[in-house]
Every structure is written in structure tokens, then in C-alpha cells.
Predict the 3D structure of the following.
Amino acid sequence: MCATCGCGDDAGTRVSDLDGTVHDILPAAAAPHEHPHPHPHEHPHDHGHPHDHEHDHGHPRPQSPGTADAGHSPAAEGRTLISLEENLLAKNDLLAARNRGWLEGRGIQAFNVMSSPGAGKTTLLVRTIRELAGELVIGVIEGDQETSLDADRIRSTGRPVIQINTGAGCHLDAGMLQRALGALDPVPGSTLFIENVGNLVCPALFDLGESARVVVISVTEGDDKPQKYPHMFLAADLVIINKADLLPYVEFDVERCVRQARLLNPGVDVLTLSATTGDGMDGWLEWIRKNPHPAAAAAGSAPRSGGLRV
Amino acid sequence: MHELSITQSLVEAVLDRTGGRSVTGVNLRIGPLSGVLPDAMRFCFEVVSADTPLAGATLTIDESEGRARCRSCRDEFVLEDMFLLCPCGSADVEVVSGRELQVTSVEVA
């Protein structure tokens, strides 16, 4: 899988269109984005004599052999050390910044909803769409490894939805979101929910360009999730403790869970609710309403440097 | 296993700068708060670099230390884990280092 946008091999990403038809990969013309092209170069490459490539990309010139780079041992005899100092998530972060600008320019608020599989993200979204019908214009982008089951549930509410199937991929990245945004074409001023792949690990590292990150955990999962998956809770703007209707039947200490989450992320909002019964939904709907549309708050949320916002 | 796609980013970033030259060493800096496991990167690197000019290159990972500064007592301390807690008890801390996820340099033949 291409690390930039998920395309390019057998297990490539598939993005549906609005009626649910799945396309393997959108043509490049429909979603222009750059790829670092795989080398090797086709030019002759004789090693029998010394040679210099004209190779000026604006990066620091190769140092002469034996010159120590800060913090590194000198290159071995006959070898050249090239300084790069490049963030490995730089490409994703660049695409995320573009998405953020695209969304802000249209006054669209976008929530990246993350959880482990089965925490109730889709149930929460279906109920949210129904309760906010007539108040907010909502669109959804669904991420799963396979199937359009979640997108079908959203489509039954009558709202537009795009399904991304990541194949072997364990998270959505900014390139996938870029293509899904092209397919969804959300209305200016609308609200977008991005349901990430069910996974409490990898999605935390990949900025999509969202306005806020919502992490859902359910009371059947155990109250130690923040300790076990700290990166996810560090990345969260809001933690929703779902399936609160099951609290009488499970050993889940809400206070302990909240305390652990706030030890990691002192400013994080926490809400306890049941998307099935509707108890506590008011707080969530109020949180959505209070979260400003980008048009009202031009700065938006700060991008995560290196994928994490601490 | 996000390390796989991150390792693919690494190989692409290096190839972008080195062209077809044979790469003999790759130097990374990975902090404990980056969310990336150095061992998983080493494992993925062998797989991803095969059949590229990076094949067989030595991967050296500088596992930098996580450090934070407490806004309450103004002390600077080493972060032992993801819980950003100063020994003085305050959670109002600013991360100074530990989130690095960088390719610092490469060695070409």
C-alpha cells in the first residue's frame, strides 16, 4: 500500500460513490495528488569512475566523506552522508493541512470519530443524525477494512455517505480523506463525521485535517483503556463513554476512567451516554453545537505535529 | 501496524533524495512519545527496502529521550511513560522532546 494515500497495490483502498458503488482507486485526474515516484533512474550508472550527479533539490549539499553530521558518526571511507532531517509523517501532515484548508474554506466542521471495533460509533452517528435532522446538514465518511455495512446503516437515515475500504490498512490517512471528500462533495456550512477504522492504536497518529477528534469507548471494554492506549487519548478533544445503559452489569468505574484520561490529557472533555437508549445524548449534541464551524473560528484546531497533539 | 506504512514513507523519502544511488545507511530519530516502535520499524525496514537501492542498508535508530517541563514548579524532567506527570504532582507540563519521528540522514556509497 502506498504510504501516502493507500493506493497502488492489490490490497489498495477503495472509495465508494454516493450510491454505494465501489471504485478501486479514483483516477489521478479526479483527485490530483503528488507521489514521490519510485526510482531507480533510467540513466546509465557506471561505477567504474568517479562521477557527480547534477542533483539539486534544494536540500543540503552532500557532505564530504569523513565530515561528521551533528550527532552522527562520520560516513565511512568513500561514502557520503546526506542530511535529511525530515519528519516521516510529513506527507500525511501536508495532505491533512490541505484538507483542513479545504474544509475551512467551505465552513465545514469535521469530526474524526475513533474507537476500538464495536464501541458503538455507527450507532452513535445514526442516532446523532436523526436527532439533529432539520438542524444541521450532516454528511458521513465511513472507514472500514472491508464491507459497506456501516455506510448502509448511515444511508438508511437519508444522509449522504462515502465508504472507504482500506483493505489491509488499519487506519484512515489524509490522502484517503482527500479522495473521499472529492466523492462526497459536502455542502458548504455542513457537518462532517469521519468514522475511522475501528482501532485504538494507529488512527491516533494520522492527522486527517479534522476540526476535532472524538474518541469513543464503551463500558464493556474496561475502564483501563486510557492507560493501555495512551496515544489515542492524548489525541482526543472529546472522550465519549458509550453504552452507559450497561453500567449496572459490568465492572466499569467511570470516575477511574475519566481520571486516567485526564492524567494523559488534562483538558479533554468527557461525556457519558448511551447511544442505544439516548440517555446523555443531549450533552453530545450540545458539544457538537458549541464546536464552532470554521467560518466562525478561522483558526480552526491546531494541526498535530508529527501526528500527535500533546 | 502503522509502522509498515511509516516505513514505506521512509523508503520513499530517502529514494526521493538519493535517486538510484546505493544507500548503505539510514539514520532515524524516534522518540518514546512518537507512537512508533523502533523494533517494529527495524522489522518493516528489511521487508520494505528489499529490491530497492536501500536493500541491506544499516538502520540506526537514535531512541531519543522524552523530556518535559513543568509549568507549576518549572522543573524539567524525564518522561518515563505517556502519563505527562511531573514528580511534583502537577499534570500541567509541556513536552520538550520525545515526539520525534524523523529521518535525520542517509549514507550513500
Residues 18 and 71 of chain B are 43 Å apart (CA to CA). The mean pLDDT of chain B is 90. Chain B touches chain A through 49 residues (CB under 8 Å).
